UniProtKB/TrEMBL annotation:
Phylogenetic lineage: Eukaryota, Metazoa, Chordata, Craniata, Vertebrata
Physiological role: Primary vitamin B12-binding and transport protein. Delivers cobalamin to cells.
Record's subunit section: Interacts with CD320 (via LDL-receptor class A domains).
Cellular localisation: Secreted
One Pfam family here: Cobalamin_bind
Protein name in UniProt: Transcobalamin-2
Length: 336
């Protein structure tokens, strides 16, 4: 079983923000340090952590937010990965680079490293900030809509938000797409940015007893959209070992309000039942892992890319994206 580096890191970040008593945190911090070491055992064979650099960076960030020192060797692994461009693909690269940059900035700010290494981390964080500004699209989005809050956190943490033009454009794009952030995990990424904060601010919180100001909120169910629509579903495998490029191409009728996930379920129900898929539950929602028996695997460095024809990557997950009538959706097995 792979280490739960990212999940435990996110839990510790959330735990620190709630100002709990110290006793439960100490044990969890020890486990996170253990997971970071177990995670890196994969690099001896694969050249990268068993999980991902995203989770590994989250682990370092969580330890720093809890004011815990991290071995220099652990930090050097992230510096080397950034220097050699190993931090991921497309929008995922922005997520990972941002998490790593936040970890670097935290370590330098909290003075948890020596002077020489602190200078290297500061320079690396600013390189990441510039890289994200250069990755911004004409619509203001950096990577994809879910990676944009991560990039904005880096601009805030590194202090360039007032001078970096990309910050204002990205914030405007974020405000136009807030409906995309419908899960607890994605809300946790965007809410600090909307208040001009980053995860680094958790480290300097002054914990004090506060009155309970939380009140339940009545959320109305989404309005039903009458009618139906038809979506063209295409599955492609351009990799050399696939026997042909287009593995599936079929019109799928669905209700008008159907999401991409609903389209996949509808395709699986069509005769002769030749469409099959699997998903994995994540904090961000269901993640597509297998289509027509072809599995996307972390260790093989491939993933199922979601596109709308002719070649536009989707900015939302399968449960959130709602295609238009007549739209062509492409599931493409891609490498990174």
């Amino acid at each position: 079983e792979w280490p739960h580096t990212g999940r435990l890191a996110l839990y510790l970040l959330g735990l620190r923000a709630t100002c709990p008593p110290l006793s439960p945190q100490r044990s969890l911090v020890t486990w996170l340090k253990y997971y970071l070491e177990e995670d890196w055992r994969g690099s001896r064979r694969h050249g990268h952590p068993l999980t991902s650099y995203y989770q590994y960076g989250l682990g370092v960030l969580a330890l720093c937010v809890h004011h815990k020192r991290v071995r220099e060797e652990v930090i050097r692994r992230l510096l080397t990965a950034q220097h050699h461009g190993r931090l991921g693909h497309s929008g995922n690269a922005v997520d990972t680079e941002a998490v790593v940059a936040l970890a670097f900035t935290c370590l330098e700010r909290r003075r948890l490293v020596g002077t020489g290494l602190a200078a290297e981390l500061r320079a690396a964080a600013h390189r990441a900030s510039r890289s994200m500004a250069e990755a911004q699209g004409p619509d203001g989005i950096i990577g994809n809509i879910y990676s944009t809050p991560w990039a904005l956190q880096v601009f805030l943490a590194t202090g360039v938000c007032q001078t970096e033009p990309a910050f204002g454009r990205a914030m405007a794009a974020l405000l136009e797409n807030l409906e995309a952030f419908g899960t607890a995990a994605t809300m946790a990424q965007v809410l600090p940015v909307l208040h001009g904060r980053s995860y680094l601010d958790i480290a300097s919180m002054h914990c004090r007893e506060e009155s309970d100001t939380l009140t339940p909120m009545d959320i109305e169910p989404p309005t039903e959209v009458p009618g139906n629509k038809t979506v063209q579903l295409v599955v492609e495998c351009p990799l050399p070992w696939c026997y042909e490029l287009r593995l599936y191409d079929r019109l799928v009728p669905v209700p008008a309000a159907a999401s991409l996930l609903d389209v996949l379920w509808a395709a699986a129900a069509l005769e002769p039942h030749d469409f099959k898929f699997h998903t994995q539950d994540t904090p961000q929602g269901p993640f597509l892992t297998q289509v027509l028996g072809l599995e996307a695997r972390q260790e093989k460095r491939n993933y199922w890319q979601l596109l709308t024809a002719p070649n536009m990557p989707l900015q939302m997950g399968i449960a959130d994206y709602r295609p238009q009538d007549g739209e062509t959706l492409i599931l493409r097995l891609s490498e990174w």
